[in-house]
């Protein structure tokens, strides 16, 4: 059985299925084999993770094949088009030489797709073991390019492999935009598999919404930052949390500053509260938009520090920096943590990468 047939079989499809059928089968299988569904059993979660890699590989191969097929059909000459129209009543088989040429072109495309898929697979697995390549130096021509992740509602998110816990005092900052500002959409959340941790959301074009918990109960609900935002515009959002206070900044402007009373022990993540960007495990409010330049600190950042660095790339070794993802050095479906703590991010389902992020100056 050839690789293309195996890919169709992996997705439960017949050979020659349409691109729409391929996409739907892929989405259905990801919902079934999503590792987050098996958080209660590490063995099953690892099995699901490997199965998802197989599904992703099959999907990429079939996508590449469909893409090349579309290019081939787009390059049909006018003479061929006219002949097809004239022959609708009685189609004539192509000459043997043309059939052989088409076969060789198809085989060449398949070979290229297999090579690309294999390269992606081995870059992710490293001979069966999950490794994170060190971030290479950024090319000089890429100095002012900021990479961003695109998310589509119910179709993708970024899962962060944190270890330990971060609670008490922390700052989370990032750039985000929405394509549907009137919808409530999750930017970041750690409300799964257990609730009462932390989230930030777009809320109906009028404010940024947050909830702050200690892992077992809510300390603050509706920790809102009033701010009118618009479609397809980048906003820098920073929430600074301490046991007795929270402050929110949008584009460096202080938009909320309130006490937490009685004081508590706010939680960003731990083993029972997984960090996710673009989705909330507790609600269906997935993001329809993009995220860039994510930073997590185990300190309370000041407004001056936020303003001074929000449009600047970090070195990665700044004091208090706990996690840093800027997506410029992704390998396959993984994005490295540039802070050195090893909190690798995994792109789930169809989250995609682009170079249309906010303007960030190189370090």
Low-confidence stretches: 74-109, 111-143
What percentage of the residues does DSSP assign to strands (E)? 25-35%
Class computed from helices, strands and strand pairing? alpha+beta
The residue fraction in helices comes out at 25-40%
Gap between N and C termini: 50 Å
Mind describing the biggest β-sheet? 9 strands, antiparallel
Principal-axes shape call: globular
Order of helices and strands: HHHHHEEEEEEEEEEEEEEEHEEEE
Detailed description of the structure:
The protein has 363 residues and is α+β, with helices and mostly antiparallel strands. The protein has helices at 3-10, 19-33, 42-74, 78-86, 96-125, 303-309, and strands spanning 148-151, 156-160, 166-167, 170-178, 185-189, 198-203, 207-213, 218-220, 225-226, 235-242, 245-250, 253-259, 267-269, 275-277, 289-297, 321-325, 334-335, 345-349, 352-354. Strands 2, 5, 6, 7, 8, 9, 14, 17 and 18 form a 9-stranded antiparallel β-sheet that branches. Strands 1, 4, 10, 11, 12, 15, 16 and 19 form an 8-stranded antiparallel β-sheet that branches. A two-stranded antiparallel sheet has the order 3-13. A hairpin with a 2-residue loop joins strand 10 (235-242) and strand 11 (245-250). Helix 1 (3-10) packs across helix 3, helix 2 (19-33) packs antiparallel against helix 3 and helix 3 packs antiparallel against helix 5 (96-125). The longest helix is centred in the N-terminal third of the chain and has 33 residues, at 42-74.
